[in-house]
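pasting for the record
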Amino acid sequence: MNIEEFREYCLSLKGVYEKMPFPNVADRYSRDVLCFYIADK
């Protein structure tokens, strides 16, 4: 399974959405973190 397949799988689950929650941190690598949330958790 590659990263795009994993992303599609996660988004296919009920109540899941993606978000990049750290846009304003000093560490540039942390800005690119993509998280999957289920019902705001």
